[in-house]
Specification:
Helix content is 45%, strand content 12%. With 339 residues, it is of the alpha/beta class. It has 2 domains: 142 residues, Rossmann fold (3-Layer(aba) Sandwich), CATH 3.40.50; 147 residues, Aspartate/ornithine carbamoyltransferase (Rossmann fold), CATH 3.40.50. The protein has a 5-stranded parallel β-sheet, sandwiched between helices. Strands 2-1-3-4 form a 4-stranded parallel β-sheet, sandwiched between helices. The radius of gyration is 20 Å and the shape is globular. The protein binds phosphoric acid mono(formamide)ester and norvaline.
Length: 339
């Protein structure tokens, strides 16, 4: 019997494949309840704090809606509107918030910050994205892939773009734990950290999957079931890096040729937000400056039937709900279908 009550959710490296699958199954149960209009306010009277030192649409909305659906209150602390970091240390913030809240979400910069928060907090801490990891996104991605293919083990996921950052790292960890073959298909400079890749090769040896790092687009994406990409410049990185990223990563843009090379079964995923047109301020500015109409993915692929990005975005909410419920401790009665 799996019991995650009281656990922090900082990176999927801390969880066994069985624990990860348990949370995905729980998310699927919550999704089914939500679709049927069945209330599931199992945590009435509890409250969660949501700290965002970087901006967000999906993660913030998912935590807020999920908290509300579970009967909880949610307090949002925006990148500027609190004392965190400037007047109050992470350790002090953790101890203050633990006296008022039952769980704390944190989105920010270094992984060591969310770890410090978790060390000093007496309640579960959930990582809503750091430079190194984006674990809540992983459960949504895996739920989406499983809904589409009916399984996870044995599938091949090819990640194109900056594989050294949060999305590349987290996908490599998650795929290797759950038995999907992971390919980082990008220029060598953007290959994941070798120590992390070595750890993931050990997970892969247990799950029976593989880790491949390749610069070759055609072999890297051949037969892939999932083609995945992310923005070329992440939140918190300086604008100056755009030029080199565009030069170095344009060969790894997700195009129709890439999808065709993967095969008819392949789906396209992206954590979003995505630069696939000029309908955003940054997309327009950068696009006009460098003469590009799209960046990491073409508009054609993004809008095509193989693109499952909005199913994926919806699943952020169901999976974040499962993460909160599992770590806050699902009441026994709810597991039997009642309250
Ligand atoms: N995918 C994701 O984390 O989106 P937000 O930045 O909008 O939360
Ligand atoms: N790599 C991106 C992911 C956004 C969800 C970033 O950190 O900005």
């Amino acid at each position: 019997m799996i019991d995650l009550k009281g656990r922090d959710f900082l990176t999927l490296r801390d969880f066994t494949p069985e624990e990860i699958l348990y949370m995905i199954d729980l998310a699927a149960e919550f999704k089914a309840k939500k679709k049927k209009g069945e209330l599931h306010e199992y945590f009435r009277g509890k409250n969660v704090a949501l700290i965002f030192e970087k901006t967000s649409t999906r993660t913030r909305c998912s935590f807020e809606v999920a908290a509300h659906d579970l009967g909880m209150g949610a307090t949002y602390l925006d990148p500027k509107g609190s004392q965190i970091g400037k007047k109050e240390s992470i350790a002090d913030t953790a101890r203050v918030l633990s006296r008022m809240f039952d769980g704390i979400e944190y989105r920010g910069f270094g992984q060591e910050i969310v770890e410090e928060l978790a060390k000093y907090a007496d309640v579960p801490v959930w990582n809503g994205l750091t430079n190194e990891y984006h674990p809540t996104q992983m459960l949504a991605d895996m739920l989406t892939i499983r809904e589409h293919f009916g399984r996870l083990k044995g599938l091949k996921l090819a990640y194109m773009g900056d594989a050294r950052y949060n999305m590349g790292n987290s996908l490599m960890v998650t795929c290797s734990k759950l038995g999907l073959d992971f390919v980082a298909c990008t220029s060598k400079k953007y290959f994941p950290d070798s120590a992390l890749a070595a750890a993931c090769r050990e997970y892969a040896a247990i799950s029976g999957s593989s880790i491949t790092l390749t610069e070759d687009v055609m072999t890297g994406t051949k037969g892939a079931d999932v083609i995945y990409t992310d923005v070329w410049v992440s939140m918190g990185e300086p604008d100056e890096v755009w030029e080199e990223r565009i030069r170095e990563l344009t060969p790894y843009r997700v195009t129709r040729q890439v999808m065709e090379n993967a095969g008819e079964q392949a789906i396209f995923l992206h954590c979003l937000p995505a630069f696939h047109d000029h309908k955003t301020t940054i997309g327009k500015e950068v696009g006009e400056k460098f003469g590009l109409s799209e960046m990491e993915v073409t508009d054609e692929v993004f809008e095509s039937p193989c693109s499952k990005v909005f199913d994926e975005a919806e699943n952020r909410m169901h999976t974040i709900k499962a993460i909160m419920a599992a770590t806050l401790g699902m009441p026994e009665a709810s597991r039997r279908g009642g309250e």
